[in-house]
Amino acid sequence: MVIQMNNDYKMPVLLIGNSFKYEVESTLKLFFHTSRFNFIIEDVSPVSLPEGDCAVLTLSESKDKVFLRALVNLNGDSSEKSCELPADADKSTREHELCRLLFHILHNMTGITPPWGLMTGIRPVKKLTELIDQGLDREQMQSILTGKYELAPEKFSLAYATAMNQLPILKMIDPKAVSLYVSIPFCPTRCSYCSFVSHSMKSAVKLMPQYVECLCRELEIIGELIRKYGTRIDTIYFGGGTPTSISAEDIRRIMEAVERSFDLSSVREYSFEAGRPDTITEEKLRVIKDLGATRISVNPQTLNDDVLKVIGRQHSGEDAIKAFELARKLGFNNINTDLIAGLPTESAQSFRNTLDRIIELDPESITVHTLTVKRSAALFADGKSQVDNPAAEMVSYSVKKLMENGYLPYYMYRQKNTVDNLENVGYAKKGFENWYNIFIMDETQTIIGAGCAASTKLVFPGGRIERVHNHKYPYEYINRFDELMEKKSEVETCLQILSGGNV
Ligand code: SF4
After folding, report:
1. For ligand 1, atom 6, which residue shows the shortest CA distance?
2. Ligand 1 center to residue 367 CA distance, Å?
């Protein structure tokens, strides 16, 4: 649960003697989802405080101490807490402890317990991996995460299990190899909760021949660079949107460009996110399989037909099951299914029914996302999707049920504005973990993106990361293609360094 406030209201937040706006705002958002804040930064305490609901965070110093104080006025109640730190406490400790005071006040005033505590902007699994590298044992890690960051014990257990399951894979990463992301950001229609870059096929259909041509050309250019610097492609991921929105012939052209541009014999994993069941046909699946993809996703999100209608899907739960069974029949032996907890109008029982039925289908991996509602998504307008949402119950059920059935959590990420600040977790049977998903989260391998809205993440030796973004809209990607390809010089520099050459 979170406090729902009028979208037009901006709660005044006074920062005195500090400018910890980002962290304070992140902490407030754990409790107030859709509200905005009006930050006022002062060096010293003003004569009077704002009237009505407000928060005041004060930092002052003496020669040997730092004094922190947080005060919140909410719905006619007022609460405050304070603490002291030694004068040499660094900025991040001061910031963290001030936010911790605010967190405790809001927890007491609202009764809300954010499951991931104060872990905002920190990836729990990455943090755990760092602590494992430092040689800490489980008990020590639990004490840091549940103590300093106020994590709920069950979330610590989930993050710990995820970190332990991905550890053997992280040890085998080849940082000199790179992964390839191929972007097909189109969907037949837009789901009401969508906050991704995705363009409707209706508006994009005229541009498709040029889009496919540019994408194939970009893949060839990347292939030339890969060959020039003698590196190899480790994993390939076709993502969207919904890559199966485009025709079987266009899928073939793009996958053939991949085949002739890269040495597929060294590719460890080739994934194709088929996505929405209403776009999956036997012809497309045959093309995808014939041209080398070994893992596909069939993503119903829910099997409840009423909920599917509410989110704007044009397929039924039964269609999703049929698409899954068709993929099996055609010989795919590594299928992922995506579900979303917290979809509008979905009850906890309906989510349980979906998950139980999906487990009966026996996919190799199941990803459970939590609904994210961003400002641009149509659902956000009424805010209803976040009030009394049983998402937390659904997520708890999924953790228990999936683990009981041999699905182990192996990657996890958290996004802003998820219902109840919950997480997204990928579960897989042993040996069916998707390495690409781990690379995305762990940021230890370069990922080169091709296509409209794709981004490239260059990971240099020593951990420096640089990003190069392709244009977001298909017409920009097509019209400014030559200009975009000039930016490949940054990719070239990275590949040169990875190959051991001097720049
Ligand atoms: S299928 Fe995914 S990317 Fe496409 S509109 Fe729906 S949520 Fe957005």
Report:
1. 191
2. 15
- Pairing relation of β-strands 269-275 and 65-74? unpaired
Fold classification of 10-110 (topology level): Double Stranded RNA Binding Domain (3.30.160)
Tell me, rounded to whole angstroms, the distance of Cα 292 from its chain centroid. 27
Residue nearest to atom 5 of ligand 1 (CA): 190
- State the closest ligand 1 atom to the C-alpha of 276, by its place in the atom list counted from 1: 1
Structure confidence at residue 85 (pLDDT): 97
Domain parsing of the chain, residue ranges: 10-110, 124-169, 175-493
190 lines ligand 1 (CB under 6 A): yes
**What is the CA 422 to chain-centroid distance, rounded?**
11
The verdict on the CB of residue 276 being under 6 Å from ligand 1 is yes
Question: Which residues, in sequence order, are bridge partners of residue 183?
Answer: 239
Q: Whose CA is nearest to atom 8 of ligand 1?
A: 194
CATH no., domain 175-493: 3.80.30.20
**Identity of residue 309:** K
Mean pLDDT of the 217-246 span: 94
pLDDT in tens, 392-410: 999 999 999 999 999 999 9
pLDDT single digits (tens) 135-168: 999 999 999 999 999 999 999 999 999 999 999 9
pLDDT band of 203, cuts 50, 70, 90: confident
Give the pLDDT mean for 160-188: 93
Using a 10 angstrom Cβ sphere, with 0-12 exposed, 13-18 middle and 19 or more buried, the burial of residue 89 is middle
Distance separating alpha carbons of residues 282 and 286, to the nearest angstrom: 6
Dist. CA 422 → ligand 1 center (Å): 20
pLDDT, mean over the chain = 91
Closest residue by Cα to atom 2, ligand 1, is: 241
Atom of ligand 1 lying closest to residue 187 CA: 4
How far apart, in whole angstroms, are the C-alpha atoms of residue 116 and residue 419? Answer: 13
The DSSP element (H or E) to which 397 belongs, if any, is: helix 391-404
| Gap from CA of 238 to ligand 1 centroid (Å) | 14
Cα 439 to middle of ligand 1, angstroms: 22
